[in-house]
Amino acid sequence: MNISDPITLVLSIILCVFFALFFYGRKKNVYNLPPGPRPLPIIGNLHILDRKRPYQTMHQLSKKYGPVYTIKLGVEKVVVLCGYDAIKDALVNHADEFSGRPSVPIFLDVTKGKGIIFTNYDNWKVMRRFTISTLRDFGMGKEAIENKISEESDFLVKKLKSYKGQPFDNTMIINAAVANIIISVLLSNRFDYEDPTLLKLLKIVNENVQLFGSSKAMLYNAFPSVMRWCSRLQKTVTRNVDELHAFIRETFTSHRKQLDVNDQRNLIDSFLVKQREEKPNPGLYFTNENLTVLVADLFSAGMETTSTTLRWGLLLMMKYPEIQKKVQSEIERVIGLAEPQVSHRKDMPYTDAVIHEIQRFGNIVPTNVPHATTQDVNFRGYRIPKGTYVIPLLTSALYDKDHFVKADEFYPEHFLDSGGNFVRKEAFIPFSAGKRSCAGENLAKMELFMFFVKLLQNFTFQAPPGATLNLTPRVGFTACPMAHKICAVPPK
To answer: How far is residue 68's CA from residue 88's CA, in Å, rounded to a whole number?
Structure first.
């Protein structure tokens, strides 16, 4: 070969570079992501996902690729965990390694890495520890918060009675009742159901939750640099978040003026006291920015998932009136006309089973809040690098046929033994699992039981004449029921 020839020389250099890169790459590539469907250039696997309900496609893909596989959302490689065993293995057995949050553009834009849900590392640890401790201090799981739920359920019953059995949409009413519980913890306040400020806040949260789960959001997260200048999604979400944050900032500003360190009335007061105590340093945690996003996180999550579950519960009672009658019979036998209390739950196995089945079948957060690996991790024969985006697909656990024999049906007997006793199921993880499980789980459980029992104690829920009940969930980050009307019929 004549290396004095320029073309030959260039080709030789290219060939040497190619072999160097090839062997260098082979040597350095110590990662071994699980296999998955073949991606296309640029768009990855976006073309094969159901645009409205991508979690259904992800669940189906596990039948071909197994419980742990990789897909590409644009250029982002995502490891999907399917089935209870794989999810538990990651989130519980490898809790530290899978406890991170990925940098999802739409969420990062609105939280700036603050708060509790989409934050990471020390900030997350400090905010979570503070939140759990403060929720406990202000009555979570205690009689104080139980009394607030009981009082609010009376307001809710009164509101439903005002419709006198006529059809109405229950979305904003249920939203408002549940929101008032978390608002009492955050602000020491409650709003009337028609209060324009509350209605505005609920509208903001509902709209953003719907947008976060849209196909536009999927594209935005896959191609943020392109979508930021050609999509109206970010403008709408940002406008909503700015309004919510402005309300929160105004609220804690007024709280600061009235703050008494010896009489802390709510979570905001407790945060402001911590803020005073925190020594000035570059790594401050109890900042105004953290407080704003934390309160927004707790308000949104504390309202949305519980109210959605209750709305599924009433819809399912209309769909299955024979189950509704069994619940009402148990309520009459155990409680009668007395006020429902959390202590009644142990004596009401059928009602408890129905509530659990509503949570399972409703499948409120089907894709879970995304996780990320905090370090390189060896997991089920694969080497997954630090920072990998992970989806522990909750729908695959709640609909896992190895744990729920009639997974595709609404079947309260999933949580009952042959003697009618309540049975816990390990695959029942609607609040997720591990270190990132829902911080308000105990509060949500109290609310679901007390509100549900109170409503069925006072009403029989029926569909409007001629209405068809649709159990297909609406598009959104959470799986809400489609818009529908209900009739709350008081006993004769």
So the answer is: 12
How far apart (Å, rounded) are the C-alpha atoms in residues 248 and 382? 44
HEC assignment per residue over 378-412: EECCEEECCCCEEEECHHHHHCCCCCCCCCCCCCH
Q: Give per-residue pLDDT as tens, 119-137.
A: 999 999 999 999 999 998 8
Closest CA to 448 of 302, 323, 329, 334: 302
Q: Which residue has the higher pLDDT, 345 or 279?
A: 345
Residue 293 burial (C-beta neighbours within 10 Å; 0-12, 13-18, 19+): buried
pTM of the full predicted structure?
Answer: 0.92
* β-pair partners for 391: 80
What is the rounded distance in angstroms from the CA atom of residue 299 to the CA atom of residue 410? 29
Q: Where does the pLDDT of residue 282 fall: very low under 50, low under 70, confident under 90, or very high at 90 and above?
A: low
211-218, long-range: CB < 8 A, 24+ apart: 211/236, 211/237, 211/476, 212/106, 212/107, 212/237, 212/476, 212/477, 213/475, 213/476, 213/477, 213/478, 214/475, 214/476, 215/51, 215/52, 217/106, 218/46, 218/49, 218/51, 218/54, 218/73
- pLDDT (tens digit, 9 = 90+) per residue, 310-336? 999 999 999 999 999 999 999 999 999
Question: Which tokens belong to 176?
Answer: 């408002």
Q: Torsion over CA of 160, 165, 168 and 173, rounded to 10 degrees?
A: 10
